[in-house]
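Sample 3 of the quickstart, ligand FE2/S2 (inorganic) cluster:
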Amino acid sequence: MINFDNENDTVVDQEVVKKLKGWGNYIQAKLGFRNHWYPVGFSEDLEENKPKPIQLGGEKLLINRIDGEVFCIADTCLHRGVSFSEKIECYSKDTVTCWYHGWTYNFNDGKLCDILTDPNSQMIGTRALQTYPVEEAKGMMFVFLGDVAEGDEPPALGLDLPPWFLDEDRYVMGIGREIESNWRLGAENGFDTTHIFIHKDSSYLTARDAPIPLGFATEQKLELGIHDKDGAPKGVVDPLMGNYRPVFDANIKGESVLSSVRPEGEHSTIYQVSLWMPGILTVENHPEPDITQVEFYVPIDEKRHMYFQILSKKGVTEPEQIHRYKEEFTSLHEPLALRGFNDDDIWARKASQAFYDDDYGWLEEQLFEPDHNLIAWRKLASEHCRGIQRAPRTGAARVVAPKKE
Ligand code: FES
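Result:
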């Protein structure tokens, strides 16, 4: 990790470091941001009383559904640091017992409620695992990766989602997969307007007769929508139209070397894109009108992220509409758009990882004009994050005092 206060750092020019201090929090957020909501999976994938380990922001967590409600606790025993998920043992539906020496914790408040091997221990009732608030919405489970003082509530889930995401007339379907790159390379890959160059050979374009340009030439005036008002989601919107001219022909030294099919008439090949805290992309009218693709880049650890690819379709509320949309999703959108088309993006993120792995890539990269929206995003994220996620030492747990009865 780069230490911005290290005046003796000779690897990078200190002037460059000073310039980048405007997005210093972002560069340090290798594990994501603390005190934000992140999706951790689809509700249908968590069965009743079947605890499941997950990793979020470098922390090992255990989620469980009890009487329909989802709970999340640290997956690290306070006694000697092993993970419950090595061998899950639950002797009552609302507790987990450590397989090693029998320390037993409540799922709802993390309290050490019993020790099976020494029921007289003075430790019982005096310690608690950290617990994390969970909410379910749109068929997904969201965990608040943060610290909530006793008697307080976490910020509303809607503040960490695109503004319309929870609208009742939108139906959401999607997939999730683990990607071997830092989460920021995912977020920036999606928002980066000229990354579409990698899609020029995608079979999706011919299969769907949906040509896209090779790139976007910047116009003189570049305008972005910056959403930074208190009490509302924070994000950067790039309207694309007006900011760029689509590039359909590419030349080297005046000679045409590549071209892509120009769409006919008013065919819209330019979609508004936006990037929201804590790392959520939206692409409007993609893969087709009335659908917005929403991508969550959720930090697993420093080198991996969960990539949730969600298609949110407007006006789908009736059972028949839902049935049709599910069929459309399974037969068309998932294989062609989410896997075929987006596999190019995944490949690009993995290929970028080595350059940014030791963090100096953030200083050595040479950005060009179309990257102005990435800079706006980095600044917004640095200014409006509620904290930077730091993982506890590997295997160590955060010990918290149990809540008062
Ligand atoms: Fe868990 Fe001892 S390490 S009870």
